[in-house]
Amino acid sequence: MKQIVLASTNQGKVREVAMMVQDMGIEIIPLSETAFQGEIEENGTTFEENAIIKATQVAKTLGVPALADDSGLEIDYLNKEPGIYSARYLGHDTPYAIKNKQILEKLKDVPEEQRTARFVCAMALVLPDGTTKTTQATMEGRIGYEIKGENGFGYDPIFYLPEFGKSSAEISPEQKNAISHRGKALRLMKDKIKELCKDEA
Ligand code: IMP
Known about the structure:
Structural class: alpha+beta
Largest sheet: 8 strands, mixed
Radius of gyration: 17 Å
Number of strands: 8
Number of helices: 5
Strand content: 15-25%
Bound molecules: inosinic acid
Order of helices and strands: EHEHEEHEEEEHH
Distance between the termini: 10 Å
């Protein structure tokens, strides 16, 4: 495997994935640099299903190996919402400053021990012949009491990491990558890619 198309238009994700697989001599091609056109409908019921749907559509259309991820935030007190709907929760175009404020409001009187939450990331690698490899990982934490930190994105400013005593928007990108759902799922995927390359050789 020499090239993998990343089924994402998010530049941050492309950079992150490219960095992690560069030692394997694999080039990551962003979806925007391919002939792929059209929308991918994420109509799965789990993170894993959505990642498989995205990667399969790209691998089948372009005839190349494709990697996709799907991630989100599960808040236990809200019955694991927003979950797979994290991006569109409270409105797709609603700024995260407002989404985060509304979540804090929903959890206003909820005690510490009931504020447990996690970020989840599923990854799927699909080859043109249909071979599918998936990984999934979480980053456990709690919903904090205030919006804190400038790093990261999305729900990071309200996601409190007890072991750091900080939100995931207050730790450095390197620290986050070492413990994050996405970092862990990607490292697990790297192992699976290595196995596939071994089989190919
Ligand atoms: P997607 O995986 O690109 O569909 O993104 C899912 C959504 O989950 C994002 O738009 C964010 O709202 C949320 N999310 C996923 N990972 C993170 C993270 O590491 N920090 C903050 N929010 C995240």
